[in-house]
# Entry
Amino acid sequence: MANDITLELQRKIEALERKNKLLEEGLHQAERLRQMYDRTAQELKSSKSLLIRHSAELAESESRFREIFNTVNDAIFIHDAQTGRIVEVNQRMCEMYGITRDEALASGPDDLSAGTPPYSSAEASEKIRLARTEGTQIFEWQARARDGHLFWVEVSLRFALIGSQQRILAMVRDITERKQIELKLQESEERFRKAFQNSAIGMALVGLDGHWLKVNHSLCQIVGYSEPELLSKTFQDITHPDDLQTDLDFVAQLLAGERDHYQMEKRYFHKDGHIVWIRLSVSLIRDAQDNPIHFVSQIDDITEDKLVDEKIRQLNEELETKVRQRTRQLLDTQDELVRREKLAVLGQVAGSVGHELRNPLGVMNNAVFFLQTVLSDADETTREYLNIIKDEIAASERIVSDLLDSVRTKPSHPERLALAELMQQTLRKCSVPSSVVVKLDIPATLAPLRVDPLQIHQVLRNLISNGIEAMPEGGVLEISAIENNLGGTITVSVKDSGIGMTPEQLGKLFQPLFTTKARGVGLGLVVVKNLTEANGGKISVESEVGKGTLFTVTLPATEETGVSI
Ligand code: ADP
Ligand code: MG
# Structure
């Protein structure tokens, strides 16, 4: 029994031990679970704090983004890439377009643009297409504010993935001010271009090498070239060679900074070859670094003015010549008047003196004749002296008759008269020196003259003695006569081979008191002319210095010809 008890006890103990073991295992398990719980709780705690930190950071970043989004100076539109609908706009956008965010989100495609090409939804769609295929698009656009006013913006358009959504991002900057300046600049440029092109004066930009760079319509008209023709040339090509150097000198002075512009009058060749006068003004244009860029030229056509100037100059010249001629004529007339005045006085004196001298000269002549007769056997010297006295009396008588004939022409008493005979008588009265050869050629068949014998005798005597006096070294005196059948006149020529006359002397010939001789009186030819004309004749003269002189006297002849008397 004991055994049984023992066995029982032993079984119970064993059972208790098993239970104990199970209990221990259970305790272990519980301990492990507790530890696991603790660890998990710990982990949970730390991940919660991480979560709190992360969400704080997220909130901060989002508010930072919001702040930037709302405070940038550019309007920002976020569109849905699929529908194109505006899904978000920033504060600036609302200010720029004068609308609320809700109104912006409700806006259609044309509401915020000018709405007319090239600023309408069709063009905007095209920009979006390009942004999708080619990347960011930057362009200028005309936008419309809520109140309807249009303003200029610069748009930067691109596709972006925001979160998991495909979005179109538009950054819009207000450039109205810049655009207005640009437009003003364009306008002023356009105004300048029009002024340049339509200016009535020729205008051009010229390169430093002389090539025309820009020319206006007026310049083309002045030189007759079309614009392309002119642009292929240099200013040197069409400048008159006589003006080129002056022009180039001025250009060099401009380039050297010695002057800032120049003006000159010069000549261009028109396309058709004729000369065009222009007034040119040139300035040099330099860049900000003071390097020369090109010339600006103004070209004014002054051909007409030049022609008028030339005409005026010619007229002035003609006028001056006329005034000179007139003055000379007046002076000549004055001289003539003075001379006539003098002559009138002289005539009165000479008339009475001459008359008074004639008688004593006649007496002296008779006395010499008497002496020569009674002293026919006188010695050589006495006879020579008597001859000298006789010659001088003859010379004095001639002067006296010249004096008298020059101041008063007696009426002529024409007679039928043979020239040959009259000439012989005249030659006898003239003392011809031995150094002078007289060649006489008067045809015997010549018609008789119809003149006053004494007067024509005096004409011939004066011409012959002048001829002889023109040949102090000797020479030939040719006396000839021909008949002019048609006119019924006879022309007598007296030609010497003497000193001749200058044109100036010839001009003064036949003027009373004109003489080049020391002992001359200057009345001989006056008498010759007066008496010739008084007998219905004419006188002319040809002369050359050093060669001789030819006097021709044309006198009336009688009707009959070839009859010798
Ligand atoms: P005078 O003989 O007294 O000088 P004239 O009237 O006869 O006066 O001539 C006037 C001038 O004309 C002369 O002084 C002379 O200069 C010039 N003359 C006239 N005839 C001739 C001639 N045959 N050859 C050159 N000169 C002449
Ligand atoms: Mg004389």
User: Anything to note?
Assistant: The longest strand covers residues 150-162. The chain has four domains: 70-180, 199-301, 305-408, 412-556.
